[in-house]
């Protein structure tokens, strides 16, 4: 069974519709650890030792957050700056994360078509996420395709509930080794894992 860690970050969760529903839907899943960074560290004073221990205990590390200003909320950057230490996460002796999988789970207000050269945001989401991909590479991890929920500003409550249940289903498949993590970097979106043919899943 794969051990999945979700580092959750939303600085205004009380105002959220989508991320709040995602969080509610996945809470309590056996084998899935939810680490709410703003709940643990409201003053951004991150406990590096605690965070490193969590990373060491898990196989798949997902950063779940709204797609703020083409990136992540501030605490994610703070977490990366402090926790992914030289000599532990990267560098000649930094092998603590070697072989793990790392990825983003994001909600974006705009539709996918707006993240194209002719769209208002001009570039695909994947290009904005390149710093996370390179971070994974430097830390000897595999960067998984992002799990993206587009167009959240136009979603009604039923759309949101459906999206949340699909996300839960994907996490349970990962946990139960019914999705081979090695397939994730080859996908365009992690969402596609729900449609993977059986031969790409672990038996």
TrEMBL record:
It holds the Pfam family Flavodoxin_2. It comes from the Bacteria. Keywords: Oxidoreductase. GO terms for molecular function: electron transfer activity; FMN binding; NAD(P)H dehydrogenase (quinone) activity. Residues 3-169 form the Flavodoxin-like fold domain. This is NAD(P)H oxidoreductase. It comes from Chitinophaga fulva. The lineage of its organism: Bacteria, Pseudomonadati, Bacteroidota, Chitinophagia, Chitinophagales.
